[in-house]
Amino acid sequence: MARQINVALIGNPNTGKTSVFNRLTGLNQKVGNYPGITVEKKQGVCKLDRGLKGHILDLPGTYSLNASSLDENVVIELLLNKNDKDFPDVAVVVSEVENLKRNLLLFTQIKDLGIPTILAVNMADRMKRKAISLDVEALEAKLETKIVLVSSRKNTGFDALKNAITNYGHLSTKPCVNASVIAPEYFDRLRKAFPKQELYKLWLVITQDVNFGKLDRNELKGVASFQTESKSNLKRLQQKETILRYQFINGVLKETLTIDTENAKDLRSRLDRVLTHKVWGYLIFFGILMLIFQAIFDWSSYPMDFIDSSFASLSEWTKNTMPPGDFTNLIAEGIIPGLGGIVIFIPQIAFLFLFISILEESGYMSRVVFLMDRIMRRFGLSGKSVVPLISGTACAIPAIMATRNIENWKERLITILVTPFTTCSARLPVYLIIIALVIPEGRVLGIFSYQGLTLMLLYLLGFGTAILSAYLLDRILKIKSKTFFVVEMPNYKLPMPKNVIITVIEKTKSFVLGAGKIILAISIILWVLASYGPGTFNEAETIVRQESASLNLSEEEIDTRIASYKLEHSYIGITGKFIEPAVQPLGYDWKIGIAIVSSFAAREVFVGTLATIYSVGSEEEETIKNRMAAEVNPILGTPLFNFASGVSLLLFYAFAMQCMSTLAIVRRETNSWKWPMWQLFAMTVIAYVVALGAYQILK
Amino acid sequence: MRTIATLKKGERAIIKEFSVDVVPLKLLEMGCLPGNEVALVQTAPFQDPLYLNINGSYLAIRKETAAQIEIEIIL
């Protein structure tokens, strides 16, 4: 059997760490979560040598081992816990040739932990163009390690890197910097108290509250007494350590690295002049947003229509092919329409992640942050809130996780609270189907379709509400926190197709699987509730036949009547009738009421629920849209989905917090139930009131 | 007294000693250290934040943070 070694990829953000990971592992990777937290865990396998495999872990990007966020903390927890099953046999610090100085800070910290550490200098293909020369051998001698020049773009240097990993046993584990000189007396006391522990490791444990594995914790009993050193004193020492490390790095690079700065006036400054320009900058950003929306609304509608009709045919086919009975019905009426409700999302989600990952990879996203910060601050947000708000158009869950790099707690909390107002892709199916039903076809000035404009308005409404409520929250919330904001402005890069494709596939997959489970479960429950009922449900046929005996109906009409009688007297019908008074003033019937209640789990369930409810007992192949169009308001006798009720529904979904997963993620990220509950309450009230107002005015 | 907030395009400056409590550690880690060189690359519309080149690293910080960091102009 092949021997396996653990390899950890560590590096600053924007060094191309993930492309190195992709080069090493190809598609042999899987993305999951670290237990208990929502930080993404990417791991893969790489064949190193005969009988030797590398288990590669791509750790979150960090500038140092002094964690200030959940993502960064993952790196430290792993490196300090020798008992972790992923504890690296060898660490590969990925750095970038143009920011070597800054990248080396992290390198020296890791090497000082006594872990064999290889330095991979990425983007080596740029050296010539940028007039950078690096004396690799001299630097290797000074850092006492192996240095490998790689280029993930040109796919060079990876054999050498694999070689270096294979031979990690020969690497020196001597520290680069003796950190104890920053406070000799203090470190002396530490050494005496814990003679068995590595000193630098102790220091990191003291300066950040890391969760240790059990064994280590026992050994380190009493470490708390060393935290008595005042917090600001510890902070001062951390600063001293950073300065000390930079002194070392500056000394080392002085003799080994030369950069001809004259050549530096290049693509960066030329592009920046346009992309962050006070007029062009905003216009270009706006143009890109328009392009993204165009892709989501327009381009993805073709595959979506295809998916919709395919699932309708599949359901029909199943019904005709399999032996009739409850099981067939469950599949054809419960599971297949339910699954269709998830699969239909794929085109839109893929487009969104495609754009977001291109914007991130190219380095443009940082410019947007820079450009928008001043404006966003007026609303109590940060420039960094732009990324969550844009990602929110795909899904609030990754968007809320993306708020982690906002340094200021108040700005971060406000971003978390308002992000669910942005129009996520789960609202889209609801919007699209209702718009198709109630907004007339036709074009303004022969260009913009009414339906497209409505959708656009709904997106603007989402953003507008998010911004407005941020402004209000900024006034209401009394939270003191230090304002502080720093964003790296990376070099512009042409996005690598391979990275983009892998991101799109991974994100789409995890979204579909995550939402899929919920939707599938709900579809099955709904089908059961709609197919069985108490009391008169079982005598439906007799009752209906008696009632319509004098009406002289065809067999087909009687069947329809039986089906609708059954639905009304099923468990779901009874529940629906019970809540009907609450939704009637909004212009809905009990079926929509059920769809709203069940879509509390996730908005997209709305369409799936209606699909399931309408399919139960129906014989012909029909798309969901046609079924909905045929529904009649039981009181007024007019089509149920008319302009007033449609607008009311659109507004309800624009504002309501109809997503359990978002609530769960807000709970995790704010570490309390207070904020998600508050959010749920406020959003539901707003949604109900606005929908009620709209229907009463328009009807 | 000059701070990074008063830096003009084309000027080069050295960061002076600063008090520990006003400059976040993260900024230090990104190269904003006493003795290092700083230059203004560009200001955002509305003159804030500032896009800087500090010690060869490109980063943007807000004016209020920049106003806490004293500098000495060298060119």
TrEMBL record, chain A:
<keyword id="KW-0406">Ion transport</keyword>
<dbReference type="InterPro" id="IPR006073">
    <property type="entry name" value="GTP-bd"/>
</dbReference>
<feature type="transmembrane region" description="Helical">
    <location>
        <begin position="279"/>
        <end position="297"/>
    </location>
</feature>
<feature type="transmembrane region" description="Helical">
    <location>
        <begin position="413"/>
        <end position="439"/>
    </location>
</feature>
<comment type="similarity">
    <text>Belongs to the TRAFAC class TrmE-Era-EngA-EngB-Septin-like GTPase superfamily. FeoB GTPase (TC 9.A.8) family.</text>
</comment>
<feature type="binding site">
    <location>
        <position position="25"/>
    </location>
    <ligand>
        <name>Mg(2+) 2</name>
    </ligand>
</feature>
<keyword id="KW-0547">Nucleotide-binding</keyword>
<feature type="transmembrane region" description="Helical">
    <location>
        <begin position="511"/>
        <end position="530"/>
    </location>
</feature>
<feature type="binding site">
    <location>
        <begin position="11"/>
        <end position="18"/>
    </location>
    <ligand>
        <name>GTP</name>
    </ligand>
</feature>
<keyword id="KW-0472">Membrane</keyword>
<comment type="function">
    <text>Probable transporter of a GTP-driven Fe(2+) uptake system.</text>
</comment>
<keyword id="KW-0408">Iron</keyword>
<feature type="binding site">
    <location>
        <begin position="58"/>
        <end position="61"/>
    </location>
    <ligand>
        <name>GTP</name>
    </ligand>
</feature>
<dbReference type="InterPro" id="IPR050860">
    <property type="entry name" value="FeoB_GTPase"/>
</dbReference>
<dbReference type="InterPro" id="IPR011640">
    <property type="entry name" value="Fe2_transport_prot_B_C"/>
</dbReference>
<dbReference type="GO" id="GO:0005525">
    <property type="term" value="F:GTP binding"/>
</dbReference>
<keyword id="KW-0460">Magnesium</keyword>
<feature type="binding site">
    <location>
        <begin position="122"/>
        <end position="125"/>
    </location>
    <ligand>
        <name>GTP</name>
    </ligand>
</feature>
<feature type="transmembrane region" description="Helical">
    <location>
        <begin position="451"/>
        <end position="473"/>
    </location>
</feature>
<dbReference type="InterPro" id="IPR003373">
    <property type="entry name" value="Fe2_transport_prot-B"/>
</dbReference>
<keyword id="KW-0479">Metal-binding</keyword>
<keyword id="KW-1133">Transmembrane helix</keyword>
TrEMBL record, chain B:
<dbReference type="InterPro" id="IPR052713">
    <property type="entry name" value="FeoA"/>
</dbReference>
<dbReference type="GO" id="GO:0046914">
    <property type="term" value="F:transition metal ion binding"/>
</dbReference>
<dbReference type="InterPro" id="IPR007167">
    <property type="entry name" value="Fe-transptr_FeoA-like"/>
</dbReference>
<keyword id="KW-0408">Iron</keyword>
<protein>
    <submittedName>
        <fullName>Iron transporter</fullName>
    </submittedName>
</protein>
<dbReference type="Pfam" id="PF04023">
    <property type="entry name" value="FeoA"/>
</dbReference>
<feature type="domain" description="Ferrous iron transporter FeoA-like">
    <location>
        <begin position="2"/>
        <end position="73"/>
    </location>
</feature>
<dbReference type="InterPro" id="IPR008988">
    <property type="entry name" value="Transcriptional_repressor_C"/>
</dbReference>
<dbReference type="InterPro" id="IPR038157">
    <property type="entry name" value="FeoA_core_dom"/>
</dbReference>
